[in-house]
Specification:
Elements lengths: L4 E5 L6 H15 L2 E7 L11 H30 L5 E6 L3 H8 L5 E5 L15 H7 L3 E5 L10 E5 L4 H15 L3 E7 L7 H11 L4 E6 L5 H11 L4 E5 L5 H7 L2 H8 L3 E5 L1
Parallel strand pairs: 1-2, 1-4, 2-3, 4-5, 6-7, 6-9, 7-8, 9-10
Antiparallel strand pairs: 5-10
Helix pairs in contact: 1-2
């Protein structure tokens, strides 16, 4: 399996150009096409005198939205650069709804991290969480100011769950070409030999993979991030929301922590 089409969320926020550039680099590497998607609903006029006034306001609002989408398409074209086949899909719709709909034709969806300290992407932006929950595709979450993903050193945060297995399958094109893959378990989260089995499976796909058992003396997300930084990894592969979202919120879940503060790209599946 390789990536045939990569879908990237486009907006006019500060992180958009870097995110699109990163997605375009992946598309060139795998000979894939790159699809940009953006959407914005036409605001409904509230204070109007009559029907004619309402129609005028709707037309004015539609013209403003068309202008925003035109600017976003131009940004997408500039940021994607040369050497990649591109497609563009925009709509008068909710941005999340539109991106989820476009994901049916993509192998990988690229979005930006939306932590509490990250810049607001504006009305065309999407948060990664609903895309993870609804798109049914692997989602690559990109931190701010990251413009290239080599995926040379990859950490697989292993937990025996369907989400993790799907994430590994979706990441195989990157895993096969990595210099080193670290299959990491935290504390007593895996049966003896399980991480070694996963590393062996990845080795059969041509990866240079090894198992690592982290002590688990602090939060799981902290252990994973600390280990990834020590290994100079530039990609973490993990399942998203293995517990219920309520449990994740109560316990400080790994998914939520990664979406909020990971300085490393994360490839996730739900």
């Amino acid at each position: 399996m390789d990536y045939a089409n990569i879908l990237v969320s486009a907006d006019l926020g500060e992180a958009a150009a870097d995110r699109i550039s990163l997605a375009a680099g992946l598309a060139r590497r795998f000979g894939a096409s790159l699809t940009g998607a953006a959407a914005h609903k036409i605001p409904v006029p509230i204070l109007v005198r009559d029907v004619c006034d309402a129609v005028d306001h709707i037309e004015q609002n539609a013209a403003r939205v068309r202008g925003l989408l035109k600017q976003t398409r131009e940004l997408f074209a500039r940021s994607a650069g040369q050497g990649v086949q591109t497609y563009w899909h925009s709509s008068f719709d909710d941005p999340v709804t539109h991106l989820v709909a476009q994901a049916c034709g993509a192998d990988l969806v690229v979005v930006s991290r939306r932590g509490s300290d990250d810049t607001d992407p504006g009305p065309l932006g999407v948060a990664p969480e609903p895309i993870l929950m609804e798109a049914g595709r692997a989602v690559l979450v990109v931190p701010p100011r990251v413009i290239h993903l080599k995926a040379g050193r990859i950490v697989v945060a292993w937990q025996d769950a369907p989400e993790t297995r799907r994430a590994i399958s979706a990441a195989l094109p990157l895993i096969r070409n990595a210099d080193q893959v670290f299959v990491a378990t935290v504390g007593a989260r895996a049966r003896p030999g399980e991480a070694e089995d996963v590393a062996g499976h990845l080795a059969r796909h041509g990866a240079s993979a090894a198992a690592h058992h982290l002590r688990g003396v602090s939060r799981v997300s902290d252990e994973i991030l600390h280990f990834a930084l020590l290994q100079d990894a530039d990609l973490i592969v993990l399942g998203a929301y293995g517990h219920s979202r309520l449990q994740e919120w109560m316990l400080g879940g790994v998914t939520r922590d990664m979406l909020d503060r990971s300085p490393i790209c994360s490839l996730m599946c739900h």
